[in-house]
Amino acid sequence: MADDPKLKELLELLDEKMPGYDAGLIRKAFNFAQMAHEKDRRASNEPYFSHPYAVSRILIEEIPFDDISVVCGFLHDVVEDNEEYTIENIKRNFGAEVAIIVDGLTKIKELFKAVEVNQAENYRKLLLSITKDIRVIIVKFADRLHNMRTLEFLSPDKRKRIATETLEIYAPLAHRFGLGKIKWELEDLAFKELNKNAYIELKRKLNLKRDEREDFIQKFIKPIVGRLNQENIKYEISGRPKHLYSIYRKMIKQNKPLEEIYDLFAVRIIVESDKKQDCYTVMGILNDVYTPIPDRMKDYIGIPKANGYQSIHTAFVGPGGNFVEIQIRNREMHEISERGIAAHWKYKEGKSGKDAANDSYVQWIRELLESDGNEDVRKNIIENFKLNLFSDEIYIFTPNGDLKRLPIGSTPVDFAFAVHTNVGHHCIGAKVNKKIVPLDTKLNRGDQVEIITSKNQHPNQNWLKFVVTSKAKSEIRKWTNKEEDAFIKAGKEIWDKKLKKLKLILDEQEINKIAHRNKYQNTRLMFKALGQGNVTIDQLLIEEPEKEKKTSPTSLEIEQFNQYARGVGGDLEIDGEDIKLMLSYSKCCNPIPGDDVVGYVTIGEGIRLHRKNCKNLLEISKREPDKIINVRWPKVENSSFIVGLILRGEDSAGLLNEIANSITSYQNTLIKSINLDSDDSFFEGTVTLYIRDLEHLQRIIERLKKVKGVFSVERLSHHTTVS
Known about the structure:
Blueprint: H1 5-17, H2 23-36, H3 50-61, H4 67-75, H5 78-81, H6 87-94, H7 96-111, H8 120-132, H9 135-149, H10 156-176, H11 180-194, H12 196-208, H13 210-230, E1 235-241, H14 244-254, E2 265-271, H15 277-289, E3 291-292, E4 298-299, E5 312-317, E6 323-330, H16 331-348, H17 356-369, H18 375-378, H19 381-390, E7 393-397, E8 403-407, H20 412-419, H21 421-425, E9 427-432, E10 435-437, E11 449-453, H22 470-502, H23 508-517, H24 523-532, H25 537-541, H26 545-551, H27 555-567, E12 573-574, E13 577-578, E14 583-585, E15 597-601, E16 607-611, H28 615-623, E17 628-632, E18 641-650, H29 655-664, E19 671-679, E20 682-691, H30 694-705, E21 710-715
Parallel strand pairs: 2-6, 14-16
Antiparallel strand pairs: 1-2, 3-5, 4-5, 5-6, 7-8, 9-10, 9-11, 12-13, 12-17, 15-16, 15-17, 18-20, 18-21, 19-20
């Protein structure tokens, strides 16, 4: 049977770009995907198969890696979009290698489907899928590129979400994997969607001066061409305008209009030679033709970037005093700058998607994923992820001349951890260019750093204030969390021994009260202070009468509150009958309207009310069950009753407003009064408010507990103890 015209065209491209590919496997994947998607349509109303076909074509023409990637380009949506197909189907038909990649791609799509992209666990899973096989992200780049090229057919909300995701995740990832050409296009397409007016205006202004720029470039390169020809150097020279998003970002960063941004274009010279020194020869010729600009020369050939990028960057004063940036590289370097890992793969002639060269591209991901499982470490993965993607590099030397790449703003502590984890752990001082400097000193490109260590030194919590590398932050957090856990364990042991000696049994709620009374946010911090020796158990257990007298609501205040609440609650009913008997309210549980209550028939004092869950009532009911009667508050439409709450926590600016807003914003709840007293950095106080029923009250309590700084919220009752 003759091949489909599209398949035939694809096979011809593969003959040119990927000789030695498995034609049978490509045919099988093409037909398999076509059949799986035969009933599906895209948002543009095209047959859905047009998308996997386009993705596979990108993987041949623009990110040529290997035939397995092309196969996965066809199959990447099959499992996610069709319940009839599973990863087992893929594995059975195409083998385990293809199944692993398709599974990774399916999971990535699921992660960001109707989910906020800033969830730490999603980043973690995304990174894990990349480490299983580098081709997962290669195929994903092709998938995202085609989606961005056809974005106009989607709804505005979906376009914005995908464009934001592209700009924040996929463009920086493409840069990290050296795919410069893909990164630039993804950025410009996302920029076009997210800030269309700025995009159109910038493009219009650049087009107006296109002829002027091209004339300038021709004038600039003319003497260079003459000298290079004179020296018999084979080369390709071209002028290229910078990409729209990079120009826009520069305008924002420098706070300048387009007219004041001078380096809008760059000249690129590709030397047709395998010898690196020929690139330096060209740079020497340029220095003879034009005046170089000091401090603008960067040698990424001698010291390549972490993503494999190699080139000489330099700048000159051109005709009319305009600055012109020039990049000098050979053909292999150019391929790697455009296609990154894909070109690296080609030049290294790798046979597997998991060779050592490709592993170097994901080593930074493995470092990010290293964790002792502590949640405090895991939740910082987003911060570390973005830090690794966006940071510019400087290079620092060890005393022996070894080179370490670090982000701009790095300190000797960052450098210490980059050398070795143990060096970081025991770092006590540093010499930069043979001079002792503080550990928070910012390092500069080319510095030589020597780390002074001591076996008695360990990571310091304060280091987190100035370190910038993810490895340093992760290791410091691991150590401080481990150290904190040890103090907490020691404090808990001291606590348990003392309570056992005193023959005291305290439940969790009572221990929490002791912690809050002593100004600790939680029991962990209290036990930590105990383990560190900052406080003794006697200090924790002894209440301070004077302080209590100062900040506690008095018995009279509580009784006045209860009487007011009962006065607006309506008459009671006994077994459905309204009653006008003498009532009293138990002091042990202080019932108010809205509580589930029962009555206890006393001699000479009428009916005494208790809450149903009152401990004293349980004892009475065992002794005198015949004196317990069913009582309930009357149900009155649109009625409300007053409730008092005690709040404790850490004081901060604007806290009173936050508390009030959390109450009033829920079903227009009315507040009768708020009274907060602060002592040092902690507060304690009462809130009285009008409540319809206990469910309403519970929602309010839940909302208050979510206010930052509020440690505890309790019902106000006569037996409440306040510290």
